[in-house]
Specification:
Structural class: mainly alpha
Helix content: 55-70%
Number of strands: 0
Radius of gyration: 25 Å
């Protein structure tokens, strides 16, 4: 996943408009919660649960690589967005006064469901990060390491049978070019790129990138 750098103007626009949108959504959702029968402080907290789930799920989506955990975060993100949009629409369309018991029931069940979803999301993200740090170095030969990365290399690890000792391994990459690729991989890693993104950039497998980076740390 490539690192995205924003200018100060872009960041100010994003944060400013985002804060304004959340403030408007907060006002509508807090009023809906009060009309659903929640107390004053409960009505003030309820919008934070809904829109807070959107923020938490978005953070997981943009910080994890493709996989089941990221797809789960996408599911929670769109679910929270749906609840927020429906709540804002209900605040506008429903008549003044207490809301229908069905609407009040939905408002009441959102907090416990959100608590369960957020807890599960945190555990899933922690497991993914732990696996990425503790993943052992695979046993692959030089010919497989120096092969260009394919579109499936990010998901599959191919284990090839070792070639006979008497047959030389093909090595058509000059030493100086390989050193340049290693230097490029270290630069991208220092900038925060993931191993998969580095592998795609330098046209090498993800296993090769990890082996080069591990050798750099060891040296």
């Amino acid at each position: 996943m490539n690192t995205i750098r924003l200018t100060r103007t872009d960041a100010a626009l994003i944060y400013g408009l985002g804060a304004a949108a959340l403030a408007l959504s907060y006002t509508a959702l807090a009023d809906l919660a009060a009309r659903a029968g929640l107390g004053p402080w409960q009505s003030a907290v309820w919008p934070l649960v809904v829109d807070g789930l959107i923020v938490a799920a978005t953070r997981v989506v943009v910080t994890l690589d493709d996989g089941p955990a990221r797809r789960y975060a996408w599911t929670l993100l769109w679910s929270a967005v749906t609840v927020s949009i429906a709540g804002n629409a209900a605040h506008l369309l429903l008549p003044a006064g207490p809301v229908h018991p069905g609407v009040a029931t939905v408002v009441a069940v959102v907090p416990p469901v959100s608590a369960l979803a957020l807890t599960h999301l945190a555990i899933v993200r922690a497991r993914v990060l732990a696996r990425s740090h503790d993943e052992p170095e695979p046993e692959v030969d030089d010919a497989a390491d120096d092969a260009p990365a394919s579109s499936a290399s990010a998901q599959l690890t191919v284990v090839t049978e070792p070639e006979p000792a008497e047959e030389p391994q093909p090595d058509d990459v000059p030493v100086d070019e390989r050193d340049a690729l290693r230097h490029r991989a270290r630069q991208l890693h220092a900038e925060g790129w993931s191993n998969y993104a580095i592998a795609a950039d330098i046209k090498r497998s993800e296993a090769t990138v990890r082996r080069w980076l591990a050798a750099t740390v060891a040296s």
